[in-house]
Amino acid sequence: MTDDGALYLGLISGTSADGIDAALVSFEHGAPQVRATHAHPWPPTLQQRMLALMQDEATLDLDAFGRLDVQIAHSFADAALQLLERSGTSAASVRAIGSHGQTVRHRPAGDYPFTLQLGDASVIAERCRIDVVADFRRADIAAGGQGAPLLPALHAMLLAREGRSRVVLNLGGIANITVLNADGSVLGFDTGPANGLLDAWCLRHRGESFDRDGAFASSGSVDNCLLNALLAEPYFALPPPKSTGREHFHLGWLAAHPRIATLNPADVQATLLELTVRSVSEAIARQTPPTADVLVCGGGAHNRRLMQRLTEQLEPRVVSSTAAHGIDPDFLEAIAFAWLARQRLLGLPGNLPAVTGARSPRVLGAWYQAPAPSSLRPEQA
Ligand SMILES: Nc1ncnc2c1ncn2[C@@H]1O[C@H](COP(=O)(O)OP(=O)(O)O)[C@@H](O)[C@H]1O
Ligand SMILES: [Mg+2]
After folding, report:
1. What are the pLDDT digits (tens) for 190-204?
2. Is the confidence at residue 165, as pLDDT, over 80?
3. What residues pack around ion ligand 2 (CB closer than 5 A)?
4. Contacts (Cβ under 8 Å, ≥6 apart) of 244
5. In terms of Cα–Cα distance, which of 277, 335, 269 is closest to 306?
6. From CA 243, how far away is CA 145, in angstroms rounded?
7. Whose Cα sits closest to atom 11 in ligand 1?
8. Å from CA of 95 to ligand 2 middle
9. Cis status, amide bond into 113, omega within 30 of 0
10. Can you tell me the distance from the alpha carbon of 186 to that of 182, in angstroms, rounded to the nearest whole number?
11. 101-112 pLDDT, tens per residue?
């Protein structure tokens, strides 16, 4: 199948659950070209329920679970349909949607490792009249991998430069790095918490869903005693492959440190920002030569305080947003899921075993067919 110029639509809501990112992408000689993007907000009550669930603050019975799966799917379909409408694109011209869904649990270790993304793909296919590829992570986990991160392949495609080492740092709810080595090899793993904890603490103490520009963190001082206690978390010292999520790094994890209760909220926020800076910087220092520059994507690239501290901490490396390299930092993940949908349709692997730890490359995702045009008319009675 040759599909130069065919359109694919990528959809994802990450661990921040701040909204659904959508990107319409075509591929010229395999290289992604972004045609249009759209950031779609969650209905607030749905968002609150998902966040409580992700952070282990709520439980669900099976009926509520089933309804949530469908509700999330409707928001994903809304995001796709709005992107099509705003870009003047017909559904018929899109070959497939790649829908990541919303991760509500990610447990890649243990006797029965699993990862769970919600957003019923049949509902999305039915509403959009476009084939949908979904459930991208489980084949990798079944093959002994982490099921994450899946972005490094796309980072390599867009940002690798021959003969130069680079690091791509994605600051989402969780932070992950992709190491693009000068010899062409690629590594990647989740370093630990980023926006997820900052958002949660800011919401609790400021009533705002995120700490714009890190202003709340800037108003406090880092508490080194708390910082060192947080940095003693065993996850940080684990060797890759590794991945994590909000079921691990949430406010309950923080509350296990009694010192929290003695500090003012701004100092805790400053300390959480510094926790991201230190855990990310130490992971980068362990895995890459000091000459490797750092290209930042994800919502954290807009947090001025966080970027300033990373720049100071990572010196002499140059730290810059991927925007400076012509790539919108907010849509790399959505582009990745458009690419992964295409890989599935072409029967090509989507994982990098060197990153996820899977036994070997796997074709990722399940393919849900759109209803055929002839089936769209209601049945005659
Ligand atoms: N101007 C800003 N200042 C501080 N943080 C920001 C800003 N813009 C976005 N963010 C952060 O980025 C997060 C969203 O990042 P995103 O890359 O979408 O993460 P995820 O992939 O986990 O959804 C928000 O929840 C917020 O914490
Ligand atoms: Mg997001």
Report:
1. 999 999 999 999 999
2. yes
3. 14, 16, 18
4. 106, 174, 190, 192, 235
5. 277
6. 10
7. 299
8. 24
9. no
10. 9
11. 999 999 999 999
